Amino acid sequence: MSLVQNIVRSYREPGEVVSALARGDLREPQVLFFALLACGLIFVAQWPVLSRDAALDSSVTFEQRMGGALFGVMFLLPLMLYIIAGILQLGLRLFAGKVSGLHVRLAFFWALLSITPLMMLERGLSAFLGAHPVVTVFGFVVALVFLYILGAGVRAILRLQPGQIQ
Q1: Alpha-carbon Rg for the chain in angstroms
Q2: What's the rounded Cα separation, in Å, for the pair 108 and 82?
Q3: Which end of the chain has fewer CB atoms surrounding its CB within 10 Å, N or C?
Q4: Are 54 and 60 in contact (CB under 8 A)?
Q5: Predicted model pTM
Q6: C-alpha distances in angstroms, 93 versus 58, 63, 153, 158?
Q7: Contact 139, 50 (CB under 8 A)
Q8: How far is residue 149's CA from residue 166's CA, in Å, rounded to a whole number?
């Protein structure tokens, strides 16, 4: 299936999507691509808010804000994501036994990539409404969807038998 179809399908059956990706010809570059694509989309999602902030406060220009966001999202965030995935893998090893780091990263990065359309919508709302309770509630919804997809993905990789993984 295509990437977009898998993202849409992840809202209905996230465990099956992660399981299918894990049983395929999965390699680290593919998982890294999911993380970097998610970071790129998160960076793009910041643009409306950065533009609004630059218009409201001209002491920091839009270009300066974009540079800071680029550095934070495209350089620091991937490193943080790998650290968080490593901590998640350690926790799973403590409580669930042996689990592949590649599969943990797949479940984590796929959950992040799957919610980027919702994050883009949330940032767009934030740019139009500012600090509004609707934006806050929608942010919580995005976080819950992330946890739902991540939880289903983790359960799916824990169910995989070593013979099922290529």
Answers
A1: 17
A2: 9
A3: C
A4: yes
A5: 0.89
A6: 49, 44, 16, 10
A7: no
A8: 23
Tokens of 72: 């934070």
pLDDT one-digit tens code per residue, 82-125: 999 999 999 998 988 788 889 999 999 999 999 999 999 999 89
Cα 50 versus chain centre, distance: 20
**Chain centroid offset of residue 116 CA:** 6
Q: Which long-range CB contacts under 8 A does 128-137 form with residues at least 24 apart?
A: 128/48, 130/52
Calculate the CA 45 to chain-centre distance.
13
Q: Nearest CA to 142 among 105, 110, 109, 117?
A: 117
Report d(CA 2, CA 99) in Å as an integer. Answer: 27
Give CA–CA dist 146/114, Å, rounded.
8
